[in-house]
Amino acid sequence: MPKSKRNRLVNMTQVSKKTREDKDKLFANIRETGMNGFIKSQLPKFAAAHPQIEISVSPRPAKHPTIVGHYINGNSRSLLVKNMQPMDILRAAESMRDTNGEKLRRANKPVTSINPSVRGIWSPYHGTGEAV
């Protein structure tokens, strides 16, 4: 290897030719992951198993992939699926299928009821005040 004046190695490239075949083999596995892999492998099975769901695929160049669910009650929910594997995207689509589209609400009490209590709220000041 040639050396420079200050005894440092000079960069010399060892590769003289790159072939396109190597690039295709290298990126073959990458094409089968993510949203493209989901569309090729899992989406046809999911669509065949659930014919009541309308599925449309629209390209969004230079944007992250998302799944958008439009529900019958008028609500819609979107989910960002970037950097997910096809099976993870399938799980996300199934969870979106299983929800009803209503907004998530926090339950402050263990029992949620639309009817008020029949007996009312207990208070120590009500009643006859009998000694125990």
From TrEMBL:
Start and end residues of each Ribosomal protein/NADH dehydrogenase domain: 29-100
Ribosomal protein recorded as keyword: yes
GO cellular component terms attached to this protein's record: mitochondrial large ribosomal subunit
Protein origin, superkingdom: Eukaryota
Subcellular location: Mitochondrion
GO biological process: mitochondrial translation
GO MF annotation, one: structural constituent of ribosome
Keywords in alphabetical order: Mitochondrion, Ribonucleoprotein, Ribosomal protein
Principal location: mitochondrion
Family under the similarity heading: Belongs to the mitochondrion-specific ribosomal protein mL43 family.
Protein name listed in UniProt: Large ribosomal subunit protein mL43
Organism: Verticillium longisporum
